[in-house]
Amino acid sequence: MKAEVEKVIKEIQPSIRADGGDIELIDVTEDGVVKVRLKGACATCPFSMMTLQFGVERYLKARVPQVKKVVLV
């Protein structure tokens, strides 16, 4: 599952980088929790949680059904 998540994160990165930020995959647990780190402008953005939940998490769940949750670390 980690390889699938990595592939999807790479698909998301250009959109996040266009706004001056970045996303780094830290880990994928056996129970479907994806741990990521937001960097650059996204690290301090007040809307980063919205981006994470309504953008990254939604997209990951649609592309990799085993994903249950995305969390920041």
Give structural attributes.
single chain; 73 residues; alpha+beta; GMP Synthetase, Chain A, domain 3; 3-stranded mixed beta sheet; 3 helices; globular
Descriptive overview:
The protein is of the alpha+beta class and 73 residues long. The protein has one domain: 2-Layer Sandwich (GMP Synthetase, Chain A, domain 3), CATH 3.30.300. The chain contains three helices and three strands, in the order αββααβ. The protein has helices at residues 2-18, 41-44, 48-63, and strands at residues 21-28, 33-40, 69-72. Strands 1-2-3 form a three-stranded mixed sheet. Strand 1 (21-28) and strand 2 (33-40) form a beta hairpin. Helix 1 (2-18) crosses helix 3. The chain is globular and about 30 Å long. The two termini are 19 Å apart.
Task: Give the secondary structure arrangement, pairings included.
Blueprint: H1 2-18, E1 21-28, E2 33-40, H2 41-44, H3 48-63, E3 69-72
Parallel strand pairs: 2-3
Antiparallel strand pairs: 1-2
Helix pairs in contact: 1-3
Question: What's a concise summary of this model?
Answer:
The chain has helices at 2-18, 41-44, 48-63; strands at residues 21-28, 33-40, 69-72. With 73 residues, the protein is α+β, with helices and mostly antiparallel strands.
